[in-house]
Amino acid sequence: MSDIQAVTARTTREAGRYVLEGPGKVFLSDSALIRQKPSVAPNPIEFLVSALASCAIASVESDARDLDVAVRGAGAEVTATRDEADESRFRSILVAITVEGVDQGTAERLTAHFIGHCPVYNTIRRGGPIEVAVRAVP
């Protein structure tokens, strides 16, 4: 499946507040480093950990439906800890998944779908390729 995702971001008239747009979606992001007041919108790190959490429970829910497994609910808590020696990366990321209404073996099978199929998780885990292109506009 070749699924291209594109999001554009632009500054606003308020320092540290950004507008992000994707296909059919518009949302805000804040940067606590630049804003001189509390953030209202998620910051980039919160978006990253939210993407992991969302992908985890979406994968569990999808696999449960495909396998006709009755799940009362699912939750994911993602904890990302910055590397004190190198703040440009995380020292660790823990994705803690809870699946309600099933036994441990079933919960592990449903979680395996997330581990095997989530592009957010697997790109972070494998250190996927990334490039940066820059263009000045005078």
Tell me what you see in this structure.
This protein is α+β, with helices and mostly antiparallel strands. The protein is built from three helices and five strands; from the N terminus they run E-E-E-H-E-E-H-H. A hairpin with a 5-residue loop joins strand 1 and strand 2. The longest helix has 23 residues. The model has no long low-confidence stretch (mean pLDDT 91).
Number of strands: 5
CATH architecture of the largest domain: 2-Layer Sandwich
What's the rounded overall pLDDT mean?
Answer: 91
pLDDT < 50 stretches: none
Question: Would you list the SSEs in sequence order as H and E?
Answer: EEEHEEHH
Largest sheet: 3 strands, antiparallel
Principal-axis shape equals elongated
CATH T-level fold name of the largest domain = GMP Synthetase, Chain A, domain 3
The named CATH superfamily of the largest domain? K homology (KH) domain
Helix content: 25-40%
- What's the Cα radius of gyration? 18 Å
Organism: Methylobacterium crusticola
Protein name: OsmC family peroxiredoxin
